[in-house]
Design a protein that fits this description.
The protein has one domain: Alpha Horseshoe (Serine Threonine Protein Phosphatase 5, Tetratricopeptide repeat). The radius of gyration is 21 Å and the shape is globular. Helix 4 runs antiparallel to helix 5 and helix 13 runs antiparallel to helix 14. The relative contact order is 0.11. The protein is mostly helical. The N terminus is likely disordered.
Length: 354
C-alpha cells in the first residue's frame, strides 16, 4: 500500500505521479467524505480489541491502512503503533517489518523525513535478516521516496533501481510498477521529462490491469505534472481529471486536495483564473480535514495572487494575511516571506501587473 504525498510549489504543480473529463463538483461536496474519526473505524478498532492477538493485529492493520488512504496520517500512525506492539509480543518478525514500513511511509507523507528514515531503516534490517525479497524491494522504494523529497536524487535513484531488480527477480508486478513509478519521479525532479514519461507509462500499463486503484491514481497525477512542466496544459488536465475521479472514488482527501491545487495551477497557466479559484476553494476543506496547514498556507498565497490579478484587493489581502498566520504558526519561512511580500505590495500600491 502506497500513498505518497508531494511538495507544493508556488509556480509548478505539486506533484509529479495518473483520462477523460470529469465535471466539476461543488465545493460543498467536500462534506461527502467521512468525518476524520467515523463510526466505522471506531467499531473496527473496538472489534479488533475483542479478538485474539494475531487477528487483532491484522484487523488493526486494516484500519490503519484505511486511515492512511483517507489522508489521516497521525491517526494511522497511532493505529500502526498498536499493531507493532502486538506483533512484537508475538515475535512476528515479518509482521514487525511490514508495520514499520507502514509507519515510516506515514511519517514520509507528513514530511517528517528523519523519523521516516529511522523507522524504515529498522524495517530494512529486519527484511534483510529474513530474506524477504519482495519486502526488501518495498522498503527500498520507501526509503528512496524519502530521499527524493529531501532532494537526494542520486541516492533515491540507486535505491529504486535496486528495488526494481529485486521485484523483477520475484516477478512482483506491483513492486515492479512502484519501482518504475519512483524512477520516473526522480527523472521528473531532474527535468528529464522524456525519461519520466517513459517510466510512468510502464507503471501505468501495469497498474491499469493489476494493482491498487490508488497507485494508478498516483501515476496518472504525476503524468499530469510532467505535462504541466513541459507546457502541455491541456494534456496535463486530462490526466488530472482521471486521477481526480479515482481519488474521489476511494475517498483520498489528501490526494484530492493536492490534486485540486495542481488543477488550479494549471488553470492559471491556461488563463482561467476564475476556474482556478474554484479549484483552490475546493481544496481547502480537504487539506483542513487532514491538518495540512503548510499546504493550505501556500494555496492561500496562490489565491491572493489571483485576487490581485482580478483587482479584488480586499480578498487578496485577506488571503495573504491568512497565509501569513499559518506560515508563522508552522515555521514555514518561505511561505511567510511570500505572504509578507503580497501584503507589502497591497499596502504600498505596487500591485501585480495586469
Amino acid at each position: 500500500m502506497y500513498c505518497r504525498s508531494y511538495r507544493f510549489s508556488y509556480v509548478a504543480a505539486i506533484s509529479i505521479v495518473l483520462s477523460p473529463t470529469l465535471s466539476l463538483l461543488a465545493i460543498s461536496e467536500a462534506k461527502a467524505f467521512a468525518p476524520i474519526i467515523d463510526a466505522t473505524l471506531t467499531q473496527a478498532i473496538d472489534h479488533a480489541q475483542a479478538t485474539d492477538p494475531k487477528t487483532q493485529a491484522d484487523q488493526l492493520l486494516e484500519t490503519g491502512v484505511k486511515q492512511h488512504r483517507e489522508g489521516l496520517f497521525r491517526e494511522a500512525i497511532q493505529t500502526f503503533e498498536q499493531v507493532l506492539a502486538i506483533r512484537k509480543q508475538l515475535g512476528d518478525q515479518a509482521g514487525i517489518g511490514e508495520t514499520l514500513n507502514n509507519i515510516g511511509e506515514a511519517y514520509g507523507e507528513m514530511g517528517l523525513r528523519p523519523k521516516a528514515l529511522e523507522v524504515l531503516r529498522q524495517a530494512l534490517v529486519i527484511h534483510r535478516e529474513i530474506s524477504g525479497g519482495r519486502r526488501i524491494a518495498r522498503t527500498l522504494n520507501l526509503i528512496g521516496f524519502v530521499n527524493r523529497i529531501g532532494d537526494k536524487f542520486d541516492e533515491a535513484m540507486k535505491l529504486h533501481q535496486e528495488a526494481l531488480e529485486l521485484a523483477k527477480t520475484a516477478d512482483d508486478q506491483i513492486e515492479i510498477a512502484e519501482s518504475f513509478h519512483n524512477i520516473a519521479a526522480v527523472y521528473a525532479e531532474q527535468a528529464n521529462y522524456a525519461k519520466a514519461i517513459e517510466f510512468y507509462q510502464q507503471a501505468r500499463t501495469i497498474r491499469t490491469t493489476s494493482g491498487d486503484r490508488r497507485d494508478l491514481g498516483r501515476t496518472l497525477n504525476n503524468m499530469g505534472g510532467v505535462y504541466y512542466n513541459i507546457g502541455d496544459f491541456d494534456r496535463a488536465m486530462e490526466f488530472y481529471h482521471q486521477a481526480l475521479a479515482i481519488r474521489r472514488e476511494i475517498g483520498d482527501r489528501a490526494g484530492v486536495g493536492r490534486l485540486l491545487n495542481n488543477m488550479a495551477l494549471t488553470c492559471r497557466k491556461q488563463g482561467k483564473d476564475t476556474q482556478a479559484l474554484i479549484y483552490f476553494q475546493q481544496a481547502i476543506p480537504m487539506l483542513e480535514a487532514i491538518g495540512d496547514k503548510t499546504s493550505i498556507g501556500r494555496l492561500l498565497i496562490n489565491m491572493g495572487t489571483i485576487y490581485e490579478s482580478l483587482r479584488q484587493y480586499p480578498k487578496a489581502l485577506e488571503s495573504y494575511e491568512r497565509a501569513l498566520k499559518i506560515a508563522r504558526e508552522g515555521g514555514d519561512k518561505a511561505g511567510e516571506t511570500t505572504a509578507m511580500e503580497g501584503i507589502k505590495r497591497l499596502s504600498s500600491g505596487q500591485l501585480v501587473p495586469q
